[in-house]
Amino acid sequence: MNINHPSFGKIDKNRVIFFDTTLRDGEQSPGFSMNLDEKLRMARILTELGVDVIEAGFPVASTGDFESVYRIAELIKDSVICSLARSGGKNDIEKAGEALKPAKRKRIHNFISTSPLHMKYKLRMEPETVLEIIADGNKKARQFTDDVQWSAEDGSRTDPDFLCRCVEVAIKNGATTINIPDTVGYSTPEDMRRIFKDLLERVPGADQVIFSCHNHNDLGLGVANTIASLQGGARQVECTINGIGERAGNAALEEITMILRTRHDEFPYDNRIISKKLLNASRTLSTITGFDVQPNKAIVGRNAFAHESGIHQDGMLKNAETYEIMTPESVGWNRSSFVLGKHSGRAAFRDKLKSLGYDEFSDEKLNEAFQRFKTLADQKKTVYDDDISALVDDEVRDHEFIRFIDMSIKSGIRASEVLLTLEVDKQNKKVEFTGNSGSVDAAFNAIRKIFPHPEATLSLFSIGAVTQGTDAQAKTTVRLEENGKTVDGQGTDVDTVVSAVKAYVHALNKLLTKRQRQKPENVS
């Protein structure tokens, strides 16, 4: 049966709408906050990827979130821009509507908890009061747009009869999309399939709205629960790039996309996602947040199309389908395996960047990255793909307020002397520090001397190698905590201490950004 939707017109039963919440739920991950320019960059990537709905933020949470939604609404015209609001929040829906004013296509997403646990302990409300708030919230949202989504927070743990009543009230009062989230990742695929099937069979008017799923990954079932939700009748999937999000994250957009494409025989649903752009979206997000996906991550991990076993290699040489159920090109990878070295030119370097998924690179950034590559190639016998990814990610990362400039070290058995130069607010500042706890400790103390931040504490310091060999680049992670805020920074360099300083500066920049913003309330 076709559904008439205010934003998409007539939708047949085999159309799946992709609702991306990387910029809202994804950004709620500890250490994953983004500044305005980074959000705008990701919004462009998402709309080019073919995402139908972009959830841009939670405007009432902070001035920064409001501005992000407003600017994304101005910029993006090919996707529906969605703004989050609490159904019963004091000014939530008004703020959401105001932030969406510039949008060509807009949606307000309002929510309230419906499970007995949440109603009793979080809301401290009776069920009848929750039903009244659902009615009022959706009526109010319809004053700003015809495209209104309502979510039953903790819906998967809600009493089935009460959930039916909630959905019926939401539909009667103007909701055109109904989202049933598995907010805490508790459900199994059979649970989610049953919930949607039950609602479609029992709720009056259910056949005239889009049902949506939003599955968290606490038990590792986010994607499986999403596919089961589609089998139960949901036709909108809420997901994030790389599966980022609260706690263990959300269902990963790239994995859902390729399940629907690879197993179209089992799941005959159409969508707008351009799969060849998945790798670029993944890499862009990793660069912005400083968090790489694990090597064996499905679809976008660096080992997803790698073959080391002799038996597998033999099969691949005879027929790639023996060990690959999809082609690397279909998600943005390139099968090229040539190795770059110090004699390689700029054209070869640019080609390698494209093969690794770095599509958007200005000439200025290319030249900067190429110079770093030439320096690295002089220091290493072999430059691997992962080496190039590491140095490029360092180059494009947004170090807004503080930048690493230079450092020299004199180190002995009992003392280390560090001369460090940082650019702080466009001005170079140099300091010398001598310590007796090693070069890294001396370098970190030098940073604190240049830019004091006494309330921030170092809670994690981790060093690994990007590739093999004694000349491998060091990859360092630094975690800073301040007043309950946690951020992670990453840095790479053939010099371990330099990589540590870069990671600390990256974390410090993210902490400064986070100071300006209030973290949105955890939802869905």
Automatic annotation (TrEMBL):
InterPro entries associated with the record: 2-IPM_HCS-like (IPR050073), 2-isopropylmalate_synth_dimer (IPR013709), AIPM/Hcit_synth_CS (IPR002034), Aldolase_TIM (IPR013785), LeuA/HCS_post-cat (IPR054691), LeuA_allosteric_dom_sf (IPR036230), LeuA_bact_synth (IPR005671), PYR_CT (IPR000891)
Keyword annotations of the record: Amino-acid biosynthesis, Branched-chain amino acid biosynthesis, Cytoplasm, Leucine biosynthesis, Manganese, Metal-binding, Transferase
Reaction catalysed by this enzyme: 3-methyl-2-oxobutanoate + acetyl-CoA + H2O = (2S)-2-isopropylmalate + CoA + H(+)
GO cellular component: cytosol
Domain of life: Bacteria
GO function terms (MF aspect): 2-isopropylmalate synthase activity; acetyl-CoA C-acetyltransferase activity; manganese ion binding
First and last residue of the signal peptide: none
Stored PROSITE patterns: AIPM_HOMOCIT_SYNTH_1 (PS00815), AIPM_HOMOCIT_SYNTH_2 (PS00816), PYR_CT (PS50991)
Cross-referenced PANTHER family: 2-ISOPROPYLMALATE SYNTHASE 1, CHLOROPLASTIC-RELATED, HOMOCITRATE SYNTHASE-RELATED
Stated family: Belongs to the alpha-IPM synthase/homocitrate synthase family. LeuA type 1 subfamily.
Function: Catalyzes the condensation of the acetyl group of acetyl-CoA with 3-methyl-2-oxobutanoate (2-ketoisovalerate) to form 3-carboxy-3-hydroxy-4-methylpentanoate (2-isopropylmalate).
Entry protein name: 2-isopropylmalate synthase
